TrEMBL record:
Residues 2-121 form the VOC domain. This is VOC family protein. It holds the Pfam family Glyoxalase.
Amino acid sequence: MDFASVRMITDDLDRLVVFYEKITGVLAKRPAPVFAEFVLPSCTLAIGHSQTVQLFGAGSARAADNRSVIIEFRVRDVDAEYARLKPLVADWVQEPTTMPWGNRSALFRDPDGNLVNLFAPVTEEALERFSRH
């Protein structure tokens, strides 16, 4: 089994696509008007309009209803990304902080309320852990 992507469901596809284009610096691929993908070197982030949920069966997902998943992006320099994104992000949850497990991290919410973590391993142990990836 191969992990393929994470897909978010939204009622405002264009708004979320523009937001993640600014955050990632990657232009989304739009194979259909109700679907977009950010194909990054390490993963794919997909965004589907709430209209697509009907294709999977009624009630299978709800737009902007996530409080249990954190979307994480590994970056080179958390503090530099924080400075770059500060004017673009309305809801910062945590300014850059070094976590007990050795990652420097900054957290914010996207326009739909999804929690996003920018992180970089900074301690020797964390750097060793991520050198295997």
